[in-house]
Amino acid sequence: MKKFELIIGTLVIISLLYKLLFSTELNTLFIISLISLSLFYLYFSFLYFNNIPIKKAFKKDSYNGITKWEIYGSIGLGFGLSFTCLGILFSIMRWPMNLYNEIGILVLIVIGIVGLIKFKTNKTTNLKKSLIRILVIGGIGSIIWLTQNDTVKDILKLENPIETSIES
Questions:
Q1: pLDDT tens per residue across all 168 residues of the chain
Q2: What is the Cα–Cα distance from 107 to 56, expressed in whole angstroms?
Q3: CA dist 129 to 69, 77, 111, 136, Å?
Q4: On the chain, which terminus has fewer CB atoms closer than 10 Å, C or N?
Q5: CA torsion sign, 107 to 75 to 85 to 15?
């Protein structure tokens, strides 16, 4: 699962850099890779953040030593990361009705605060892995969410199709 996350994350970064630097030709790759990352976090977060292989997902022994709060926290983390990825996608593609960033970042803030408190007492690699993702994805989502639409349009060199058709 770590390889899948790394490959999809790399595709997101490459397609976003290509979109920023050259043109908007890789929109399809950007959309598919970011939605794939979002779905990965939504459906497999409780396995991934608790180090449970997919093959052992349905075996009761796999969950020994994992509390129900750790499972609930990883599900909440996956929900927050998934919604933040969708918020990033909607913001960059300038699609309407984007409430994903607000919901995702709010969930990530709550989970991040609880994770930081737990990390001070119990410095496990699972918490460290979770906090890194909260900082990276939540940070990118927050920056994009707090940036004004005109600034994003200037950075991405996008034209608003409605304004273009009115001027013609």
A1: 788 888 988 888 888 888 777 766 667 888 899 999 999 999 988 888 887 888 887 887 877 888 888 888 888 999 999 999 998 888 888 777 778 888 888 998 998 888 888 888 877 777 888 888 888 888 888 888 887 666 656 665 555 444 444 554
A2: 28
A3: 17, 11, 13, 11
A4: C
A5: positive
Q: Which amino acid is at 126?
A: N
Please check whether residue 82 is in contact with residue 104, taking contact to mean a CB–CB distance below 8 angstroms: yes
* Environment class of 65 (CB within 10 Å of its CB; exposed 0-12, middle 13-18, buried 19+): exposed
Distance, CA of 22 to CA of 5 (rounded, Å)? 25
Nearest Cα residue to 84 out of 150, 142, 130, 43: 142
Q: Extract the tokens encoding 168.
A: 């013609």
What is the Cα gyration radius of the chain?
Answer: 18
What are the sequence ranges of the domains in the chain? 2-159
Amino acid, single-letter form, for residue 78? G
Q: Answer whether 0.90 is exceeded by the pTM.
A: no
Q: Which of 7, 101, 85 is nearest to 42 (CA)?
A: 85
CA 96 to chain CA centroid, Å, is 19
